[in-house]
Recover the amino acids of this structure.
């Protein structure tokens, strides 16, 4: 998993140039760049408590955030000339980008050591603005496909109404610790989260992947915050036991969804041919742009629009917010109970193609903005 690096400057063109350069450089696999061009948004982001591993900002931005900069996080002032803001390490804002990035890398070196175990983990989030479109079926099949290709996979279901017990082995969801207990560990003894996961993660024989049980107290899920979701993902990644984390999100679009999307290499946005489903997706996308602004806009390269229950013909003349990247056929799951986690051959083949497409795109990791 990549370092969370925050840039705060007033020039939007500067942010675009820097983001484009990082996206095509080796730093794309190491950094997730979150950028702000307004003081208010920068301050609000810091107040929200999102994990940050490095900050580079213009003096006016740092002055606006005085008193709320996170402790222990490397901070540099982006200055026009040396000595302009000596309270912090200074970086010349206008210099050759390779040199600037090397200086930033040096600045972030202490933070990088703290999450080195996470950097190899790729995160794929599966999202839909509507229920009942086949999101969990896709998540399960994607997990199975990745595991079959040799990946070490963890499946994390963050739906409010988590029904994994309908396809788990008989009795698997009874009488053991799950997400509620992990949240308690993360809040009270965060250093023991890896040990807890080692004891309580489950193994699904057919999916060939690990998972944890849902919240035993539903209120824990209903009150789950974006910072909680971030901590859960990072705890799983930090174990060093997994190559891929597949996260099953529910419908809606709030700070929790955005936090998970910002941690993800790819966000599969699932729709169907149904016009109501597509309209809801349009509205959700518009809401994301309106509410989250730059943070949501620079997530766009990660969004992979996938049309389920479709051969592509009806969708050909429609537009939601971007072209569809894949089409998945209508499918009936094979078998009942635990065997129903695997889908029909045509669906399995389509998901295999989607997975290969995502793997092929790994070299050009998108960069977050905020």
């Amino acid at each position: 998993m990549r370092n969370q690096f925050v840039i705060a400057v007033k020039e939007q063109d500067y942010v675009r140039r820097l983001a484009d350069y990082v996206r095509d450089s080796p730093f794309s696999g190491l950094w997730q760049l979150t950028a702000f061009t307004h003081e208010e948004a920068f301050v609000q982001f810091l107040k929200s408590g999102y994990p940050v591993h490095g900050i580079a900002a213009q003096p006016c931005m740092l002055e606006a955030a005085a008193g709320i900069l996170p402790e222990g996080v490397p901070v540099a002032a982006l200055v026009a000339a040396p000595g302009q803001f000596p309270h912090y390490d200074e970086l010349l804002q206008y210099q050759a980008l390779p040199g600037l990035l090397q200086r930033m890398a040096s600045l972030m070196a202490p933070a990088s050591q703290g999450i080195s175990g996470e950097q190899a983990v790729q995160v794929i989030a599966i999202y839909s603005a509507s229920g009942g479109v086949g999101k969990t079926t896709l998540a399960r099949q994607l997990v199975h496909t990745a595991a079959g290709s040799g990946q070490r996979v963890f499946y994390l279901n963050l739906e409010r109404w988590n029904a994994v017990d309908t396809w788990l082995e008989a009795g698997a969801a009874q009488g053991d610790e799950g997400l509620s207990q992990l949240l308690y560990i993360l809040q009270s003894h965060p250093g023991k989260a890896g040990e807890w996961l080692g004891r309580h993660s489950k193994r699904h024989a057919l999916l060939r992947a690990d998972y944890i049980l849902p919240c035993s107290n539903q209120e824990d899920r209903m009150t789950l915050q974006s910072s909680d979701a971030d901590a859960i993902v990072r705890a799983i990644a930090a174990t060093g036991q997994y190559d891929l984390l597949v996260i099953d999100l529910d419908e809606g679009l709030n700070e929790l969804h955005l936090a998970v999307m910002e941690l993800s290499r790819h966000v599969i946005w699932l729709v169907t041919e149904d016009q109501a489903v597509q309209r809801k997706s349009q509205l959700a996308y518009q809401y994301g742009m309106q509410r989250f602004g730059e943070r949501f806009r620079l997530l766009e390269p990660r969004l992979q629009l996938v049309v389920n229950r479709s051969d592509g013909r009806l969708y050909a003349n429609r537009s939601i917010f971007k072209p569809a990247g894949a089409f998945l056929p209508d499918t009936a799951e094979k078998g009942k109970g635990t065997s129903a986690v695997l889908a029909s051959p045509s669906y399995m083949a389509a998901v295999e193609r989607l997975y290969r497409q995502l793997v092929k795109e790994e070299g050009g990791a998108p960069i977050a903005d905020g």
Summary: The chain has two domains: 3-116, 120-363.
